[in-house]
Amino acid sequence: MRKIILSILGGLLIVGAYFASQYIADKGDKKRPAPEKVVKTVFTDTVHNSTVQIVIPANGSLVAKRRVELYSEVQGVFRTGNKLFKPGQEYRQGENLIRIDASEYYASVQSAKSNLYNSIAAIMPDLRLDFPEVFQKWQTYLNGFDLNKSTPKLPKMTTDKENYFITGRGIVSNYYNVKNLEQRLAKYNIRAPFTGILTEALVTEGSLIRNGQKLGEYIDPSAYEMEVALSKAYASLLKVGEQVALNNLDKTQNFNGAVSRVNGSIDATTQTITAYIEVKDKTLKEGMYLEANLNAKEESDAIEINRNLMLDGDQIFVVRDSILDIIDVNPVYFSDAKVVLKDIPNGTIILSKPVPGAYAGMKVKPYTATNSKDI
Question: How far from 61 is each of 56, 64, 65, 131, 306, CA to CA, in Å?
Fold first, then answer.
């Protein structure tokens, strides 16, 4: 009896398992609902061809337009002046920058001037007897001869006899020897060639200065130049006097400059041409790094877009009836962030921002104020 009951229960269990498996299989065959197709919203812009100003970016550091490297042509001890010879010290034009002790050399100059005076005085009796017609002008020269002043120019000799007589006494050679010594004496005082500021000082008061030694650097802080290297393609576009907008690296200060010079040759290694931009501003300093934007040329019937909108093969995306398409374009100028394009018909709707994963034939929805919540 027990065996019969167990057989019946086993059969029922098998039947129940069969129906349960059928139920589970039928439930798994139900189709999932199709996902709703998402249409991306894109930012667009309408093409309006116009004249585009092509601006060439460049950068460089400022250098004083007028600068002097100071060197000594004589030897001596650096004497203390009215101002300390230190970087940042300002001087007026003609003011002494450096005074070198010239007391020993000054004595030799005075000795040569005295010898010249004595040589002329020695021939005066002969001039009175043999050349009475020129005696007075030489007497006037002697009367105006001052050892403490620069040696005056010799009187003009009007006849050959006078010339032979004066030259034969060695007066002309003595005169030029004195003038040569006076010229060298002037080198013991180095004066400011223009109003400016000392930017480098390599000697101090009391030090011994040697012939040919560099003493420092002196600049005019009122005008600076910036050297920029540009592609040879713009050689014919650069013009002297062209206005240039400049700014510092932080873009917190703006300056106005002008192209002052353009090099007449192209660098053979880099194929670039050098231009110099002059800029004046009281806040500028030598060595300051600036960015410049040069107006190279105007391109008519063109537009300017971001470079990241360009595709390989000089193509861009356009929107036609809410479908993306690709058209060919003619790029005429590339900058770091922008590109100037031509041959795009007016009224063409183009993307103004790149769309990740975009492809030709992709359905899109142009951005408007009413669908802004979908973005």
Answer: 17, 10, 12, 68, 28
